[in-house]
Design a protein that fits this description.
The protein is an alpha+beta fold. The chain is 40% helix and 21% strand. The protein folds into two domains: 4-98, Helix Hairpins (Orthogonal Bundle); 115-434, BirA Bifunctional Protein, domain 2, CATH 3.30.930.10. An eight-stranded mixed sheet has the order 1-11-12-13-16-10-9-4. Strands 5-7-6 form a three-stranded antiparallel sheet. Strands 8-14-15 form a three-stranded mixed sheet. It starts with a helix and ends with a strand. The model has no long low-confidence stretch (mean pLDDT 96).
């Protein structure tokens, strides 16, 4: 959420930013409501002060003066009875519109209407070449008996799957690989130094809750689009769509000492999304599912360090993909395709031979203090001043999507799939290949 004072001072810029982000928001109405809110708040505070003064006055007043004081008190109470509901209504309208305002945008973010105007920053590796016609992950997965969507559809419906056999072992090898990298101070320090980040502090592993209260999800600005969430009506809570949804609020209503920052976490969680609005998209296979597992990074930092933390995150993402030797490209997301809380969004797209194109496998969101303002997460500076922290969240690996990238890029002519060298030591028996069962 943006500071209303910032919106008052930068009205034109905020309106232009809403336009660039394809978000409709009536800033004039918001500012008018804010003026009404402030005036009503002053009126209510003044009436409460009068009420308290009359309460004190009546205690020591002579008996013949008390009826007049009581009458004046009734009038004050009557005015309060009108002003307080009016203030409550105005506050609700004000907060509703304020919640629609997107974060400001990084000056280097591309301006564009949709994902067609995202910009490739750099590429790493050439698309994988084969001396045979490559198959997609479902043809390979079904033949190797490691992916089963047909049975899952009968049991749970479309966009669910059973991951089986060596693919399960591969999934847990990926998890162990990520945890080993992100908890290794030497590796993180080297990557931090490479991009000019002064902290080599490693990440703390987290297994977070998979259910978040509705009001907390709203503070994270991840409640909407509600059509894409699994909402538990009786609990007024939601299943997470990413580990970030329950890691971000870990320091809600907390002031962190500056010397503790940055706080870096790597969370592992099952995630749930209805994939509303994606009818007909990626219906085959496990690229876009209602349930998937994900390793997610979450960082809390001092404001001036937030952008550097995102640079570190992208460096880590590239390192992880490079270790698997999968071709990829780094993409700057344009204004019209960016999430509402994001100040800057950068994605990584891995090459998928089965689709003959790059597809998004990673995202990184630098949200500045947008979430921290509602969460009331602050940092106490060394000079005792207090301000809001800045927050970053990003994918380490979305398991299903990186499984696809591995299966398709490491497929062999005989239909087997090699295990990337970086993962072999985490496989039971150091399995090097997934082969068709006799």
């Amino acid at each position: 959420m943006l500071d209303i004072k910032y919106i008052e001072l930068h009205k034109n810029e905020v309106e232009k930013n809403c336009e660039l982000r394809n978000i409709k928001c009536d800033i004039n109405c918001l500012l008018e409501l804010n003026e009404k809110r402030k005036q009503l708040l002053r009126d209510v505070e003044d009436l409460n002060a009068q009420k308290n003064s009359l309460n004190d006055e009546i205690k020591n007043a002579p008996a013949d003066q008390k009826p007049d004081i009581i009458e004046r008190g009734k009038m004050v109470k009557e005015h309060l009875g009108k002003k307080e509901p009016e203030l409550k209504k105005i506050k609700e309208e004000f907060r509703k519109i304020l919640a629609q305002v997107p974060n400001v945008t990084h000056p280097n973010s591309p301006i564009g209407k949709d994902d067609n105007e995202n910009k490739v920053i750099r590429k790493n590796g050439e698309p994988t070449k084969f001396d045979f016609e490559p198959k997609d992950h479902m043809n390979l997965g079904e033949a190797l008996d490691i992916i089963d969507t047909k049975t899952a559809a009968q049991v749970s419906g479309s966009r669910f799957n059973y991951i089986k056999g060596e693919a399960v072992l591969l999934q847990f090898a990926i998890i162990q690989f990520v945890l080993n990298v992100l908890t290794d101070e030497k590796v993180i320090a080297e990557l931090a130094k490479k991009i000019g980040n002064s902290s080599g502090k490693p990440f703390t592993p987290i297994i977070p809750p998979m259910i978040v209260k509705a009001d907390v999800m709203k503070k994270m600005d991840r409640f909407d689009p509600i059509d894409d969430r699994y909402y538990l009506k009786e609990d007024d809570a939601l299943l997470v769509g990413s580990a970030e949804h329950s890691m971000g609020p870990m320091f809600m209503s907390t002031t962190i000492d500056e010397k503790e920052l940055p706080l870096r976490f790597i969370g592992y969680s099952t995630a749930f999304r209805r994939e509303a609005g994606t009818y007909g998209k990626d219906t085959r296979g496990i690229f876009r599912c209602h349930q998937f597992d994900k390793l997610e990074m979450e960082i809390f930092s001092a404001p001036e360090k937030g952008e550097s933390e995102q640079d570190l995150i992208v460096a880590i993402q590239e390192y992880l993909v490079e270790q698997l030797k999968i071709p990829y490209q780094v993409v700057a997301i344009c204004t019209g395709d960016m999430g509402k809380p994001d100040y800057r969004q950068i994605d990584i797209e891995c090459w998928l031979p089965g689709q003959n194109k790059y597809r998004e496998t990673h995202t990184s969101d630098y949200v500045t203090d947008f979430q921290a303002r509602r969460l009331n997460t602050k940092v106490k500076r060394t000079d005792d001043s207090v301000e809001l922290v800045h927050m970053n969240d990003a994918t380490a690996f979305a398991i299903g999507r990186i499984l696809i990238a591995i299966i398709e890029n490491y497929q062999q002519k005989d239909g087997s799939v090699l295990i990337p060298e970086a993962l072999q030591k985490y496989m039971p028996g150091r399995i090097k290949k997934i082969e068709r069962k006799e």
